[in-house]
Amino acid sequence: YACGITVSEIRPQLVKFVGKILDWIGKYCHWSNPQGRNAVHPVIHKVVDVEENIWSTQFGIKGKIDLSVVCRLPENLSHLSSTLDTLSLVPLELKTGRPTYSLEHKGQVLLYILMLVDRYGSSYTTSGVPQLIQTANVGWLVYLQNEIKDPPKALSDPGLVLPRLASFRGLLQTRNRMASQLLRLVNSAAQTNESELNRWSPRLPPPIGQLRTCQMCPVQLACSLFSSSHGQPCSRISSTGHGGYETVANLLLTRRAHLSPSHVRFFTHWSHLLLLEYIDSERLEDVVARIACPDTTRSTDSTVNPRSHAGTVRQLKVVHTLTTTSDISGPWRTILIPAVNVKTEYSAEAGPGPGELVIVSSDDGRHVGFTLGTILSLTRADWYKLDVTTQRLLSPTSATYEERTQCVFIQTDSAEAGPGPGELVIVSSDDGRHVGFTLGTILSLTRADWYKLDVTTQRLLSPTSATYEERTQCVFIQTDRCLPTWIESFRLDRYVTSKVMQLNLSNLLGLMQNSPICDYLRGLIIDGTQPLFRGTLSKQVVSDIRGILKHLNTCQRTAILRVLMAKHYVLIKGYPGTGKTETLSSLLRVLARLQKKVLVVTHTHSAVDNLLTRLIKCGEKRVLRLGSVERIAPELIDYSFEHRLSEYCTNNPFSDPSACIQGWIENAAVVGCTALAASGGSGSRHVALTRTRFDLVLVDEASQLLLPTALGALICLRSSDGTNCNEPGRFVLVGDPHQLPPLVQSAKARQAGLDRSLFTHLLDLCGQSHLTALDRTHDPHRPSVPNGHVVELNLQYRMNAPILRLTNELSYSNSMQPIDSIVSNATLADRLCPLSARLFGDTMAPPWLRRALSPLLEDSALFLDIFQWNSCSGVDRQYSNQTEALLVAFLVRLLLQCGLEAVDLGVIAPHRSQVALLNRVLAEPTPGTIESTATRQLATGVEVNTVDQFQGRDKRAIVLSLTVCSSNQTTRRGLSRNLLEDLARLTVALTRAKHKLLVVGCSGRERSANESHDIQMFAQSDGVLHRLFELLFQSNDYHALTQDDFAFVKRLEQM
What we know:
The chain has 33 helices and 33 strands.
């Protein structure tokens, strides 16, 4: 479909190979040609592996060998073997093109010879062959277009590639030159200081200057653009027979002749920022180095388990392997358990999780990356039970069913470490000798379903067992090949990919293409062309959409009408709780009614699912959801492109699905996917988008997307045909500039501006760069520039008056308004009952606690300052605070006891380690009467998560744990900056609460007897959190807890 051809057109191209393949098998395979030792050509006796994945840490190269085969070499090649018998393990490379036996092809086979020697050594053993087999004495290059008549004798066969020292030397020198250029690039960014970031450019090698090669190069435009950043793009290239420097320079200049200098600067600036992010982020070579050199890369911190590392699980042995098909290509499912009985402290945030891709290696690091594997998710209905004595799977009806091992995933001991659910891991030998046997995905991670295995008795223990916490957890992974049996101990490492950076660079390059739509977009995004609007809408359009707009409020209707009148683009500021999803679903209904084709992209899968689900519930069924079925909401499965295609191919195995694919896409009024799925060139973008153009692209969560990421979807817009009847497509960006910006790992890239979204970029172009309340404090008279293409959704349905007032003054410059008095005056009065004597007995509850549990409107927002509890001294290197966690758990239990439901309560912390600590504390029983078994069960049902994970959702009550005291000098030296000093992140945390907001933390200042002095001290302090403390203090929503209060909490827990 993507190539524009049908199965009937491609079938003849494939069929012509079938006869040649069968002829080749008949001549060269032992089971078809029993000539054996008398053959004058190699004869294959066994296929060891197909697409064998080898990451050679000895030579610094990686690749996949088409076929690793055991061959009997003819006697005239016996001089290559040190034994009388001439069996050899040979890399076989298949080519479908015309036979050329070029240096490139032979060089590839020579590299495979090196890889096989690195993996297996000088000799190899295999089942069914009683002798040692020589490794890689020769390589084999096979062209499938060759006519198989009389096979040439071995010595005259150009496909047999003999190892030669000079060839190896040249190949490795070329490899080292490439590696040195990559290292030079990495070092050039690492050594750049902050003042030079905006002027930094990558140190790249010059173009090769070979005209014939450059004319056929598929990346001419990229080469031309990168060369332009160095002024004289080819000044270092000497003259050649094809015109040399001048001709190649002209070629490169011609490729970018359609671009202005500002366009080229835009490309180089953003590509440099992406490279900074890539260089400062963890890369695959870092993971491989950690596998290959496990002893030298271990942490020197004695508190860290030496067998653990971020994203790593070590010392695992295979206890069972199974495959669901008879095909050698799998998928294979493997159960691993620890090779040694080592007690490890497990954490919910660590270790590979379900669906994660892992690298499978030998535990000693000798063999890196046997394969990639997927950690499998097991539901209670599909758990595999393993009899570890007989190594057989048991059926659910087995008498010893409950005594068997249930496979889940193993955890490491770092709260911040370990792959999460769905990630890819690298499977290697534990000693680091063999890296990357394969990749795999971890398939299970549910705390409630974890089972511990007594590795001594091989019996399953119940959660009430005395030694429950000392048991071992298993790993269940899925790979595309069976793991090697000759490796005793494996390790799994989280797979790190640079795919996102590649897609972003492809988007930037796509914007630079010489096409009408890219020229249109460059004018708007780079040149700053002001967007235009139609003066009116036709009466027919107004009549058609009136019923859809009827239930919306004024600003929601305005946003939709501005989109319909726009000729270019509209920016919608969707503030929290303002009905953004309802507005966008109504906009999609309007566009579908007007027969417009729309592409919807978002930052996350959940966001696009929420929007499409709302649209379907409103009656619009012409929806197509793109993306992996595993990542799509269950209610959208029937609208999934991948699901439909799978069902069609299953039910019609001999039919051509191209016509159906075309029909699904043409009939869809709304197509939805993530922004990354719409990114990249024609070979990377989702296949359903390669031949389709859209009237409008809607980008939700646009303020969370990197600018290059948002470009991919816009390139899918319809271009103009030069007439007024067919104008170019429009786009709509929806976001909140006051909330979280795009995630950037590199501090240097962030400082240089990579966290600037396309949404913010276009706001700045029109003078609408967002102002916070803090900005207006310093410049209250700064005028705002009215722009018709910027629309605010500012009538909110979420927060009551006290919480809204706090967020308005802190971030939104009082631009948000409640939709009505019902929202403004809403409280928890329908949930929270008065404090009962049963909870406190004869003890009088202090004022701060009465307010914390009060359903009154004036008590909706409250800050509990525990500075006097010495809470900052309890903050460790992992960003967790035990004192705060105890108070937060105390408040959560009391709120539940007073009638609040767990589903209505959320706990937010800035760091994952504090989230993990809070989950543990809430799960621990307390001896006091404030907690019953039922309350503890409810407490474990309360969602505890980071700010980022809570974005886009809300709860009736929120407890916010600040965790880190930003004013503590010791903390400043020992820890990096407080995440909540970021105004955007703090804004997200505060705006999750609808009716109750409890902030627990340390202000860093002791309360004085003079209230005006305290206000002045907060006002004079720097930082976002101190501005929050000042606002809460001024509204009398501040309580400084004393040591007596600490004693009260501890005493109440013991009652």
